[in-house]
Amino acid sequence: MPRGPRNPFKRSLDLPADIRARIPLDKGEKVLAGTLARDGTWLCGTRDALLIVDPSGAAPDASRIAWERIETVDWDRETEQLKVIEVGEFGRVRPEYAFAIDEPGLLLELIRERVTASVVLQRRVVVSGKRGLFVVARRAPRGSGEISWAYEFDRGVDPADPAVMEAARIGLESAAEELGL
Predict the structure, then answer these.
(1) Domains and CATH numbers, the chain
(2) Among 54, 30, 40, 50, residue whose Cα is nearest residue 102
(3) Looking at the DSSP assignment, which residues form a beta bridge with residue 134?
(4) pLDDT tens digits, residue range 15-69?
(5) From CA 140, how far away is CA 47, in angstroms rounded?
(6) What is the residue-wise DSSP string for 104-153?
(7) What is the DSSP letter of 94?
(8) pTM
(9) From CA 147, how far away is CA 159, in angstroms rounded?
(10) Cβ neighbour number for residue 134 with a 10 Å cutoff
């Protein structure tokens, strides 16, 4: 099975033509970084999204996850695992992906930069003692599109608790006001 680039600082990406053909790109968009997972999955990043190309070809096009839809990305150097977790919805399991990768190269740097750039505002709201939540405003890193709002609750904080719901509402109103919305 072919492997991705071994040099993590290499600026060009040796992306096979058949894989490149399966990546739906918007006008002017291009693959900026990528790597090959051990199972043959290609992970590619553009200015707008992370693209996941299934090695089986079962999906005709790459899966596309906009940067503002990614909550966290973790790279474990010891296990060589790259884990991507999407922003979730209350009461639903968050979409999560894990890939065994020899070397993430520039892709990890790109992912971290683009996900960070999607955060417009993040504010801490204390509910009780040290426990609380974050109110997070995000949008596409290039600054276009609507702002989406999310809450990230500390462990042990019950989002269904009326006091928590009220603190979250007040925190969101304050954050929106800060952004002039």
Answers:
(1) 17-116 (2.30.29.30), 119-178 (no CATH)
(2) 40
(3) 124, 152
(4) 888 888 888 888 888 999 999 999 999 999 999 999 999 887 776 678 899 999 9
(5) 9
(6) -THHHHHHHHHHHHTEEEEEEEEEETTEEEEEEEE--TTS-S--EEEEEE
(7) P
(8) 0.80
(9) 22
(10) 16
